[in-house]
Amino acid sequence: MNIKQVMVCGAVVLSAIGGMIGIAQADAVVLPGAAFAIACENGGSYALRSRPVLAPGEIVTAQLYLHPRHAIPVRLVPMGDGYRYAGRGVWLDGIGDQALLYLRKYEPVACVVSRI
Q1: β-bridge partners, 48
Q2: Each residue of 10-61: pLDDT tens digit?
């Protein structure tokens, strides 16, 4: 078998694999993202918008808007009964609609989370 035949066989195999991946992605169900309003005791109102996911239970990433045009990327961390959205220097710990927003390490702010 010469190099030309190996390259042709490799191209055929790669195109077949690519076609199967395309079919698998076409059958995938995309779950829409969600948006939440966070009203805190410090007078601040913030927004949390999650991104769409392909399947339930996938890692959920979101954007936490501390300012109208400035978002911090955060990631969902399941915490037993509650949840945590953690990003660089900021995190939101909560159970149900009650949450604590940590803008500084040892200074949590009590908040109420509601779906938009």
Answers
A1: 36, 64
A2: 444 445 444 444 444 545 566 677 889 999 999 999 999 988 877 766 778 8
